[in-house]
Amino acid sequence: MIPQEIMQKIRRIHIRTRRVVNEILAGQYQSVFKGQGMEFREVRAYVPGDDIRSIDWNVTARTGEPHVKVMAEERELTVMLVVDMSGSGRFGSVARFKNELAAELCAVLAASAIKNNDKVGLIIFTDEVELYVPPKKGSRHVLRVIREVLYFQPRGTGTDISNALRYLGRVIRRKSVVFLVSDFFATDYETALRTTKRHHDVIAVTVTDPRELSLPDVGRVAMRDAESGKETMINTGDPRVRRAYERAAEERQQARDALLSRNRIDTLHTRTDQSYVDEIYRFFKMRERRKSGRAAV
Q: How many structural domains is the chain composed of?
């Protein structure tokens, strides 16, 4: 039985995200993602004027007569939310934890997809895949997605992005829009990311808390790694310690961004101390402009 306070939080998130989808993101999702792919429909005999690039050479060779592939725009998409629920998500220094922000982000993305009659699926992972919810449609399904991301109690605390992406490749064969939601405190996932990118439209959603980037001057404090459990005593009153912390955070972000960039992964950056609505809107507008530019070429 889910506690009443959790149910109330789920309803509040659902109401808030529906408002975001209806009032702010109306039309953005469809213009960005709809019609992005083509699916095979049939093979027919070649007629003068057909694009020679659409010739099906296997059928042509078998029949001795030229045939072409007939393609049609995909109208129904599958959106997969691949969500990192490792120990570092249970951290927040402002108004909410990182995994609460992840839940709202997933709710907005799921509601946008459902509003456009697309399917939504969910994979929750830590250092193992902990939950798989197959893609479905409907508002009740959105509520389940919100509930799972918000309430799910993972067994693991570590992060294995590669394993989650390999699992995605086994259960989702059709080309899908994949939102990988994580703080990306992980290593050795580039090969799996590159493989996933070949089959799906992959979007990285980074979730960050400001205290992961800089430390306040509050004297000596004990810091505990949420994934490894290791504790370290540091003196935040020492400016050298704070500068070293900031440099390490900056280097970590630069390495992550460089990895995503060289694999041509679009990225949506979110923070627990900022509105995710503006970031999602800017991201959708960026994708829309790029899509329009390609169409004009």
A: 2
